[in-house]
């Protein structure tokens, strides 16, 4: 099955600096790569996602890059703010199969990001 | 607020007992997924239902079972509980079909004593 490795497990940055979290996946058939942010006491929240036919996607201060050949993808957060402090999870899935979707995600172990004011 | 509702938020029980976790998906979502989150294993996919039918199975123990009802809410039943079953259980929902975005509830924290 799919295996997703995520690094680093913890990351501390100064407010205003950039943060980068990296993930690798094992199954070359995976084609959908979302990133989730989990705040304390809450469920994971989708913040950005990318499909395998796209190399990069941006949404304001957040960007994700994908290298299919190397089977790795990264989350970039620029101009970090204290409210960015949370646990971030990468995930991978093979997308839909035969009709109704089965988007079971394989998650990385998470990165605890701390933004120091 | 994701629109996915999970109850109860916290559950404390003893080994050997049985509990039921409940999930109401977002309005219009046909798929429900259950995930288990623990410190050592991270987020593990358990099972998915689509419009009342089981669609995919992950690392779900035989002591665990789930179902999705006609009104699309879902229940996860955990029986013969062990200490190691203590974890945060999340429900997520998606539209189904070609929609891949999952929306997670706030979870049920299960403590087995």
Would you give an account of this structure?
The complex is a heterodimer of chains A (117) and B (113). Chain A has 117 residues and is an all-beta fold. In chain A, 0% of the residues lie in helices and 52% in strands. In chain A, a hairpin with a 6-residue loop joins strand 4 and strand 5. By secondary structure, chain B is mainly beta. Chain B has no helices and eleven strands. The termini of chain B are far apart. The chains are: A mainly beta (117), B mainly beta (113). The interface between A and B is medium-sized, with 26 and 30 residues.
Question: What's the layout of helices and strands?
Answer:
The complex is a heterodimer of chains A (117) and B (113).
Chain A (H helix, E strand, L loop, with lengths): L3 E4 L2 E5 L4 E7 L6 E7 L6 E7 L4 E4 L2 E6 L4 E6 L8 E7 L13 E2 L3 E6 L1
Parallel strand pairs in A: 2-11
Antiparallel strand pairs in A: 1-3, 3-8, 4-5, 4-9, 6-7, 7-8, 9-10, 9-11
Chain B lengths: L4 E3 L2 E4 L5 E6 L6 E8 L3 E9 L2 E5 L6 E5 L5 E5 L8 E8 L8 E2 L3 E5 L1
Parallel strand pairs in B: 2-11
Antiparallel strand pairs in B: 1-3, 3-8, 4-5, 4-9, 5-6, 7-8, 9-10, 9-11
Alpha-beta content class of chain A: mainly beta
Biggest sheet features of chain A: 6 strands, mixed
- In terms of quaternary structure, the protein is heterodimer
Q: Quick one: biggest sheet of chain B?
A: 7 strands, mixed
* Rg of Cα set of chain B: 13 Å
Q: Main interface pair? A: A-B, 26 and 30 residues
Low-pLDDT ranges of chain B: none
Average of per-residue pLDDT values of chain A: 91
> Structural class of the secondary structure composition of chain B?
mainly beta
What is the global morphology of chain B?
globular
Rounded mean pLDDT of chain B is 93
Quote the beta fraction of chain B: over 45%
The helicity of chain A comes to under 10%
Strand content of chain A: over 45%
Order of helices and strands of chain A: EEEEEEEEEEE
Task: List the total number of helices of chain B.
Answer: 0
């Amino acid at each position: 099955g799919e295996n997703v490795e995520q690094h680093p497990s913890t990351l501390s940055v100064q407010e205003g600096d950039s943060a980068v979290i990296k993930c690798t996946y094992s199954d070359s058939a995976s084609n959908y790569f979302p990133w989730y942010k989990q705040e304390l006491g809450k469920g994971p929240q989708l913040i950005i996602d990318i499909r395998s036919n796209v190399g990069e996607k941006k949404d304001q201060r957040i960007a994700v890059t994908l290298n299919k050949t190397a089977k790795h993808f990264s989350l970039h957060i620029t101009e970090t703010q204290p409210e960015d402090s949370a646990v971030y999870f990468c995930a991978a899935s093979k997308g839909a199969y035969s009709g109704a979707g089965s988007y079971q995600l394989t998650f990385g172990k998470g990165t605890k990001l701390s933004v120091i004011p | 607020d994701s629109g996915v509702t999970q109850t109860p938020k916290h559950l404390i029980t003893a080994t050997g007992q049985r509990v039921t976790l409940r999930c109401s998906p977002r309005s219009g979502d046909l798929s429900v997924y259950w995930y288990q989150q623990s410190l050592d294993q991270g987020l593990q996919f358990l099972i998915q239902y689509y419009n009342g039918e089981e669609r995919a199975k992950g690392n779900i123990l035989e002591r665990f079972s789930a179902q999705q009802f006609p009104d699309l809410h879902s229940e996860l039943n955990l029986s013969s509980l062990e200490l190691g079953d203590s974890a945060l259980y999340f429900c997520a929902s998606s539209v189904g079909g070609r929609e891949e975005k999952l929306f997670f509830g706030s979870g049920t924290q299960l403590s087995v004593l």
